[in-house]
Each structure stands twice: as structure tokens, then as C-alpha cells.
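WD repeat-containing protein 20: structure, please.
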Amino acid sequence: MAAEGGGKEMNEIKTQFTTREGLYKLLSHSEYSRPNRVPFNSQGSNPVRVSFVNVNDQSGNGDRLCFNVGRELYFYIYKGVRKAADLSKPIDKRIYKGTQPTCHDFNHLTATAESVSLLVGFSAGQVQLIDPIKKETSKLFNEERLIDKSRVTCVKWVPGSESLFLVAHSSGNMYLYNVEHTCGTTAPHYQLLKQGESFAVHTCKSKSTRNPLLKWTVGEGALNEFAFSPDGKFLACVSQDGFLRVFNFDSVELHGTMKSYFGGLLCVCWSPDGKYIVTGGEDDLVTVWSFVDCRVIARGHGHKSWVSVVAFDPYTTSVEESDPMEFSGSDEDFQDLHFGRDRANSTQSRLSKRNSTDSRPVSVTYRFGSVGQDTQLCLWDLTEDILFPHQPLSRARTHTNVMNATSPPAGSGGTNPGSNGNSITTPGNSVPPPLPRSNSLPHSAVSNAGSKSSVMDGAIASGVSKFATLSLHDRKERHHEKDHKRNHSMGHISSKSSDKLNLVTKTKTDPAKTLGTPLCPRMEDVPLLEPLICKKIAHERLTVLIFLEDCIVTACQEGFICTWARPGKVGILSSQNQANSPSGTVV
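Here you go.
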């Protein structure tokens, strides 16, 4: 997207931008980096990543920030839009030899003002568990690299668990670990648990329980990123082979797949209600995929190079009743209209209401963002005319330009030929027939996603307990706990699957055979979104995009973590800090 004013402004870095909500402004005093503020020479280094956690301390300033730059790892108090960053006082700083940190994740369940559990993945394949508040290193996993020797691409705690975490590698493998277990002194031996189209899952054969509990082999080439659904039940993975694969995490069933237009997929995220997945990658596009219908519903073109991060903004995603001028919700919701945490929660509940009842028209707009190697930030709105195309596309639309929107209307009818061979008929509206698609799930299956029991009960009923190290009894007991905390038991997973005959194929998919199919529709067959804004905001490629309540956080490969205040969130204190901030700050 060309900048206004000709060539001179093309390379000018923007420090503010405007959307329908108002003015977003870069706060130079809230920039985090290495203490010397010198741009990092990023040649050959791993991407800069940022992780946040809130420790709920008494001061009201509970946000903590972790980021990696080259061989270094920093842990700071994050003051956001409220106060200037003090880079001279990191809570913890670590410099590694012979390997570099590549990714990290906090356990939000166990975090306190006195202790946090931070997982750090490394370029040589190890995973470290550290407590940067206590300045302790408690455990090192895959220390001898007997489990996997390739770079760690993504590490995340399993939602709702204090001990389970999942690690992806550039080998294309994922491993499920338990912090309480050791990794053993020999290479693990595996036993096949489940096999399907382009994936296989193995358990670890051992007399005593050891890590990894499970080994997933997914697709061809590196597994670049994965993301758990908001309810923790499903896992979306994107790989270098260009495929998005969505699994039921507990039953280890493949729910659906999607293929990039070309090249690898690099990033993935879920909408706040778990109904849509957005991916980005080497085709320079963002792609919106419907979890319910298992099909591509839109693509977005705005980047000039690879898309490195995609993320939904839960604070700007809006839900309105039939009268667009009337805000739907309580007075408390109305007070939090602009980016409040309650606003995000009430939005999510109303999003689920939108999909469970059609008696009352509701207007939905999802906001998501993307950053790329072209140093640009793009913001996108996913609106009614894209989400529900059986409504006339000619109706007045705001903030989303629909180009080539020639796709036939898509309804909610259809069947889901699941891996167990049973078809699920979707109760839908009487709308014109949809495009051919791989499968679809009923709305009820998704609107009940908050219930932890629906999918698992069936899985447990058909489960097997032949794995000596995996306790089915323990799994059942915990299943009935109120908070439903996951444990290491995998005995409930059925080893019988109609996918058994579909061996993990090592032959590369011919892009020409998928183009024009539901896996990868042609460009003219789905609506093409244009970004609300597309601004150059850094000198080096962008690697981080995080939406917080008061601000947006971005980071580039030079090691600068930038805070963009949301409209109306720059206070007097911030203005004073801005005036008193040291000169020479690099943006």
C-alpha cells in the first residue's frame, strides 16, 4: 500500500495512525530493549519474541515482560502506557553460550508476585524451565538432545495445566512434556498411538513414566507455530509444507486442513470465540479459515513480503444488536466500551450467543492484525458481509473493502465425515447450497465448546488402557474435577481409527492439485480483504504483535519492543514522561 505523498514518505517510519476508534500513538518512553539501546545486529539470529504475564501484585503494576535478543534473555516490569521504561533495572538477564533462545511462554495459572514459571526454547533443541523472579533454573529438558536435535520453533503451556507443556521443532515434530518427569538418559523408544493423513502420534515406551509423553509428527518440513483454541480443546498447527492442520488435542483427531496459496505458513491465531483461525506466511497473505465450516472464507492482501505474526484484538472486536446505534450490554459493559477487559469478556459471550440463536440479528466485527518482514503493521476488520455471505454483498459495508467477492453464498448445512465414520448433520438456515468443502461441524458443537465433557466422554468411552505408563483411572477421576486440570494420562485416546490405513505420506503435495479445491481456493473464489491501515513502523523485519488492554505491542529484529497507546489512553503522566525521556531513542 503506497504511502501518501510519493516516494519520500515510502520509507518514513510512522509514529501514529488513525482507525475508526481514534488515534494510536507510539510512546517512545515506553520502549523496551537491551539496556544500551543499541540496535542489535540481527544477521543470522533467531527472531525477537515477547511474552507477557500478569502476577497480580498489590501495586497494581503486575505486568511482566520477557524478550530474547540474540543470545540474551531479559525480564522486566512492564509499565506500558503508565510510566517510562527503566532499562537499567531488569529483574533478570541471561546470556547463553553455544545456543540462542528462540521462544518462551509463561504459565499464567501459577504466576504470583514471588514466582513465575517461564519456559524457554533454544536453537539447539533444549527447553529450559526458569523462574526469573527467584532467578532460579529449575530444569532443563532434552538436555542431551536425545529427543530432538533441531531448533525449537514454539513452546506453550497446555491451557489449564500447571505441569504439561508442548514443544514444536523445525524437524516437524511436537512433543508433550510433564515438568515433573525426567527425560531419561537414553533416546526414547516409541509406540504408535494414532496415524492419519500426514500425521502420526506416538507414546513413549518405557518401564517408568518419562518425557516425552507423546510425540507428534505433523506434515512435511518445519512445524513453524501452533496455537491452542480459547477453550483449550483444539490445536492449530502451521508448517513449512504450507498446511494448516487443526486437531482435537485430547482425542488426537484431525478436525480440518487448509493449504496456503503458495509457500510455507509461518503463523497462526484463533479468534476470541474460537470460530475462526487466521494464518500468515510466505504467500504474503493473511488467510481466514472457518473452524465451523472447515474452509477458507477470506484472504487479505496488504503485505509486500512474508507475514510473520497474526493476532486477534479482543478489545476491538465488536458485537451489536440489530440497531447499530445501540450498544448491547449492561451499563458496566458500556463503561468499558473502549478496550476494557470486561468488554472483551462480554464480547466473547455475545459472540457465542450470535452463533447459538438466529432469532435476533446481531452485527459482528472481528479485528485482527498482522506484521511482516516488510516492516509493516496491517490492521484488518472481518465483517458481516464476509462472515455471512448469504446476506447480499452489495449492502453498505464499512472498513472492509471486498474485492473479487464472487464466491457463491455459503450456508451452514452439510455433514462432517469425521474420522470415526459417523456423519453429523448440521442444523442450518435455508440458504443456497455452499461451495464444496471438506467438512463442517454444527453450530451447537462449537457453542458448547465451553463444556469440557462433550468431546471427551465419547473418547473415554472408546478408550483403551493397554499403555502401562498411562493411567485411565487417573484420567477419569480428574475429568470430574471442577477445574478440569489436565494430567499426563493419555489412556482414554482411542488407538483405533479409520485413518489407520492412511500412512504418514512423505511425498510432497503438488500445489497444482490443491489449487482450486476447498483446501486452497483460487484468489477469485473468495473475498479479498484490504487492510484498514498498512504502515511501515520499523527499520527491520517485525516479529511481534500483541494486543493488550491499553496498547498494542510490536517488536522488530533490532531488539526494540514498542508500545502503541490506544486512543484516549495517553495520560498526563505519559505526556510528562515523554517530555522527560532521554533523547536519541531509536524506533
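Notes: The radius of gyration is 24 Å.
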